[in-house]
Design brief:
It is built from ten helices and twelve strands. By secondary structure, it is of the alpha/beta class.
């Protein structure tokens, strides 16, 4: 009889690629994000993935804001896995992006072992009126900058995370990232079990198709072997977040949802809280016979150091 593994459900609360003019429901302030974390934790999410914003909603990498957010979330949700971004905001230097790991030593942080020509320019024509002056230019900025991760910086990020006991949340936008991760793994820089997120559907990255998800999972199996990694899917946009999430559930993978990557829960209906996505995935998981992992069960699966070893 096949042993059905428990499902790790992670929520990316707000991200940096969504702007306030796209939805009034995106949690932007520290208190709003803390409240969202509490809601999804109580609903069954094992982990969150956090970004920070300035008072006008502008994506930020300021350590002062991180220093306010992280302790509040931990106090409100004691056993929740708190993962953080090392993307921060477009235009930050690699050192600025990595400073949050050195300062707060989280259990988990995002790690992209490849460069990606990410772009959000196609969102601009869909917004009839911008709430803040910074938004339009920000959405166009990444078209010029992309998401550049040189191999030197990739190694620095991986080594720094290992030094501070932070598990890299490896975000793969294509197969080149898998091969870069293989190099780091063979060099002993990336430790097992590797935690993989297949990011599918973003313009500039791999398409949001089931064939692409199957390709990445099959390549990961071939390159690393089944006992060396755990994998999850991030479906960008609606309905990908659900269709690809359902695929991951059926294939015994894991799922990340949230307003970082999708703002709709049904066609034309904005998500009012991340907890709506959590409840939807819970329903799909229940139908498929996948029980949700608790935060501590997820820690054991992913291979995390524990909430008592962070610096916040």
């Amino acid at each position: 009889m096949i042993k059905v593994p428990k499902l790790i459900l992670q929520v990316a609360i707000s991200g940096t690629d969504t702007v306030p003019s796209q939805s009034p429901y995106i949690p932007l302030t520290v208190d709003d994000q803390m409240e969202e974390c509490y809601k999804v934790w109580k609903a069954g999410a094992a982990a969150v993935h956090l970004h920070v914003r300035e008072p006008d909603g502008r994506p930020s990498g300021l350590l002062d804001i991180w220093g306010e957010l992280l302790p509040k979330v931990r106090k409100q949700c004691p056993d929740l896995i708190i993962g953080i971004t090392t993307g921060g905001a477009y235009g930050l230097t690699p050192e600025e992006r990595l400073s949050v790991v050195r300062e707060f030593r989280p259990e988990m942080a995002s790690f992209t072992p490849e460069s990606v020509s990410l772009t959000l320019h196609h969102v601009v024509p869909k917004i009839k009126e911008f709430k803040y002056d910074w938004e339009k230019e920000y959405l166009l900025t990444n078209t010029k900058l992309g998401f550049v991760n040189t191999f030197e910086n990739i190694m620095i990020f991986a080594k720094t995370m290992r030094e501070y006991g932070t598990k890299p949340e490896c975000e793969f936008f294509g197969t080149s990232g898998l091969y870069n991760a293989r190099y780091l793994w063979r060099e002993g820089i990336l430790e097992e079990p590797i935690w993989m997120q297949f990011v599918l559907g973003v313009l500039g990255g791999t398409g949001g198709y089931h064939s692409e998800a199957l390709h990445l999972q099959t390549e990961a199996l071939r390159i690393f072997g089944s006992d060396k990694f755990n994998w999850s899917i991030i479906g960008v946009g609606y309905p990908r977040q659900y269709t690809l999430g359902a695929m991951a559930i059926g294939m015994f993978g894991h799922v990340r949802v949230g307003m970082e990557d999708n703002i709709y829960v049904r066609k034309g209906r904005l998500c009012k809280s991340n907890v709506e996505m959590v409840e939807d995935i819970k329903t799909i998981a229940e139908i498929c016979g996948r029980e949700l992992a608790t935060p501590d069960e997820a820690r054991e699966i992913i291979g995390l150091k524990g909430a008592n070893k962070v610096n916040f």
